[in-house]
């Protein structure tokens, strides 16, 4: 099963201080990257009338915080995109927006500093997330999901 994970992140700052190039980069990765992956992978899936599209969102795609406006905006867009896509897919397929939860990543370190170490390490997250994701099915179409843990 091919898997592609992209991430777009910004350094925490008020929106008006975030360079345009950095804003564009987060839009290109988080939103345009998601759109392009869908455009290329979904047509063959539709021909087979089977498959699950898992779009990575974020807690900041369902809420907001200061100093991460471009990131929040792109993740809210992924949530809306996924909802629309779920309504377009044929029966037997699904599109879900997946909030991975809070994972100890470089972005989290940038935002939370040393306290990021208190959150789930990536390897531990993978051990719980992979079985959860592999268990998704057409019954989950349109759902906003969060990896348990």
Short description:
With 149 residues, this protein is of the alpha/beta class.
Describe this structure in words.
The protein is α/β, with parallel strands linked by helices. It has one domain (15-146): NAD(P)-binding Rossmann-like Domain (Rossmann fold, 3-Layer(aba) Sandwich). The protein contains four helices and five strands, in the order αβαββαβαβ. It has helices at residues 20-48, 69-88, 106-112, 122-134; strands at residues 51-56, 93-99, 103-104, 120-121, 144-146. The protein has a three-stranded parallel sheet with strand order 1-2-5, with helices on one face. α1 runs parallel beside α2. 20% of the residues are buried. Mean pLDDT is 91; it is low at 1-6.
Topology:
Layout: H1 20-48, E1 51-56, H2 69-88, E2 93-99, E3 103-104, H3 106-112, E4 120-121, H4 122-134, E5 144-146
Parallel strand pairs: 1-2, 2-5, 3-4
Helix pairs in contact: 1-2
- By DSSP, the count of extended strands is 5
Per CATH, the architecture is 3-Layer(aba) Sandwich
How many structurally independent domains?
Answer: 1
Query: What's the SSE pattern?
Result: HEHEEHEHE
- What integer is the average pLDDT? 91
Largest sheet: 3 strands, parallel
Radius of gyration: 16 Å
Structural class: alpha/beta
In what range is the share of β-strand residues?
5-15%
Provide the CATH topology.
Rossmann fold
Helix content: 40-55%
- Can you say what the CATH homologous superfamily is? NAD(P)-binding Rossmann-like Domain
Give, in spatial order, the strands making up the sheet with the most strands. 1-2-5
Q: Separation of termini?
A: 24 Å
């Amino acid at each position: 099963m091919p898997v592609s994970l992209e991430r777009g992140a910004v350094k925490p700052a008020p929106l008006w201080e975030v360079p345009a190039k950095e804003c564009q980069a987060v839009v290109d990765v988080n939103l345009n990257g998601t759109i392009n992956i869908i455009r290329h992978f979904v047509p063959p899936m539709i021909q087979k009338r089977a498959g699950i599209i898992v779009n990575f969102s974020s807690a900041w795609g369902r809420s907001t915080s200061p100093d991460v406006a471009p990131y929040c905006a792109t993740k809210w867009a992924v949530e809306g995109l996924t909802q629309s896509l779920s309504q377009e897919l044929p029966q037997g397929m699904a599109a879900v927006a997946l909030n991975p939860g809070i994972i100890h990543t470089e972005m989290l370190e940038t935002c939370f500093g040393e306290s990021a170490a208190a959150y789930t390490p990536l390897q531990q997250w993978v051990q719980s997330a992979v079985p959860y994701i592999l268990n998704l099915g057409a019954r989950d179409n349109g759902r906003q999901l969060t990896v348990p843990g």
